[in-house]
DNA sequence: GTCTATATTAAGATAGAC
DNA sequence: GTCTATCTTAATATAGAC
């Protein structure tokens, strides 16, 4: 770890505050509807100052996505650290964390379409590295769970991976929450159930 | 049915062409990234002419969404017309149609966030009526399927309904298609499997 | 690095002739 | 109803003083 000057620490702390705000706004409104003016206002600095830290709106969003990816990788470590956890337990653990995070309004979701953000992210080494590592880690769990017979062997591992990734932007959570008559924990339980056991709902192998 | 003059027929035909183009562009890029200039160019008329037919971009998109809703209701009738079909068969039928339509790039998907389109749609009687009717029809099938034991009784019917609706914008289809190594039919089968039987994958009650 | 003020551009919408 | 030309606004980005 490199020793940092006080000035550098302040600089990083400010950038962290910026990225935190961006992450929240991205989760709330998405990339296209989030404006740089808004970010600057919420952070409490001038827009021009923002552009001294990040060269573009895409870079701003990319920084937030990288931080999100790092959080996800941290969660992977948390799952890995559970002593008796099987592969399916870990998959369920990371999926539950994803749902909880989204429901809490803290999951910045990439626009599914061909937005300018998509290209920026594909060109962003930090983001792509994180994505690869996350895919590898989950991929290993998936293969193991299929060997255990706890994940359907008829599905290609990539389909399982994408299905779990997609929980980060599952609109069902928001729909159920909008109803207003269920607790967050209850909503997460239901979506976990549909995800792993399906609508037809036979109990899973354990 | 009211008798229409030739002029009126031409008018309606043109509006149909416009709505068709909008539907495709909405499916491709979403509401925010679709521009009115683009719509006009693809239809082959001037932008100002477009605004003689529809008063705003939101109205344009709403017309496309209403047409989509009508197509869905038609599909409901098709399912209802199957002689031996049980409730779960019908639910699977409409879900499969939804997946196929999205995969074919013909499913305009509403932006999940608080876009201007959302408010326009909520204020749009034709759209909301269609949505209510669709919800009622699927709701009846869901309740019946739960009574039959073919849909998990632990799930509230609204959760099942939202889960089926959400297939219209499931990103897993696009992810798998981007890989390029699977047929559309194969992709649809896998997503159907995860939707109804879950990742854990026990065969459903039939 | 922070600010105020401004440039630039893209896109929704309209004016007015035919 | 169709067109060309124009208006208006909002949002990304930058200039330049301190």
Short description:
2 copies of one chain form a homodimer. The first copy, chain A, is globular, with a radius of gyration of 19 Å.
Structural summary, described in words:
Two copies of one chain form a homodimer. Chain A is mostly helical and 206 residues long. Chain A has a single domain, classed as Tetracycline Repressor, domain 2. Chain A has ten helices and no strands. Chain A has helices at residues 6-33, 36-43, 47-53, 57-80, 87-103, 116-122, 125-148, 157-165, 171-179, 184-197. In chain A, helix 1 (6-33) packs across helix 2, helix 1 (6-33) crosses helix 4 and helix 7 packs across helix 8. Chain A is globular and about 55 Å long. The mean pLDDT of chain A is 94. At the A-B interface, helix 1, helix 8, helix 9 and helix 10 of A face helix 1, helix 8, helix 9 and helix 10 of B. Chain A binds a DNA duplex (18 and 18 nucleotides) through residues 11, 14, 35-37, 45-49, 51-53, 55-57. Chains A, B: GO terms for molecular function: DNA-binding transcription factor activity; transcription cis-regulatory region binding. Chains A, B: It comes from Pseudaquabacterium pictum. Chains A, B: Residues 35-54 bind DNA. Chains A, B: Pfam families: TetR_N (PF00440). Chains A, B: InterPro entries: DNA-bd_HTH_TetR-type_CS (IPR023772), Homeodomain-like_sf (IPR009057), HTH-type_TetR-like_transc_reg (IPR050109), HTH_TetR (IPR001647).
């Amino acid at each position: 770890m490199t020793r940092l000057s006080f000035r550098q620490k302040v600089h990083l702390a400010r950038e962290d505050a910026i990225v935190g705000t961006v992450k929240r706004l991205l989760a709330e409104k998405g990339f296209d509807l989030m404006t740089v003016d808004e970010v600057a206002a919420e952070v409490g600095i001038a827009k021009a100052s923002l552009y001294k830290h990040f060269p573009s709106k895409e870079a701003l969003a990319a920084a937030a996505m990288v931080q999100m990816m790092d959080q996800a990788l941290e969660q992977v470590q948390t799952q890995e650290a559970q002593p008796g956890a099987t592969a399916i337990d870990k998959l369920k653990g990371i999926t539950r964390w994803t749902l909880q995070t989204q429901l809490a309004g803290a999951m910045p979701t990439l626009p599914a379409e061909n937005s300018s953000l998509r290209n920026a992210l594909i060109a962003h080494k930090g983001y792509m590295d994180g994505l690869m590592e996350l895919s590898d880690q989950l991929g290993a769990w998936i293969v193991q769970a299929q060997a255990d017979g706890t994940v359907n062997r008829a599905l290609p591992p990539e389909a399982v991976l994408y299905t779990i990734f997609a929980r980060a932007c599952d609109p069902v959570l928001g729909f159920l929450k909008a109803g207003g008559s269920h607790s967050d924990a209850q909503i997460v339980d239901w979506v976990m159930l549909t995800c792993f056991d399906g609508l037809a709902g036979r109990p899973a192998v354990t």
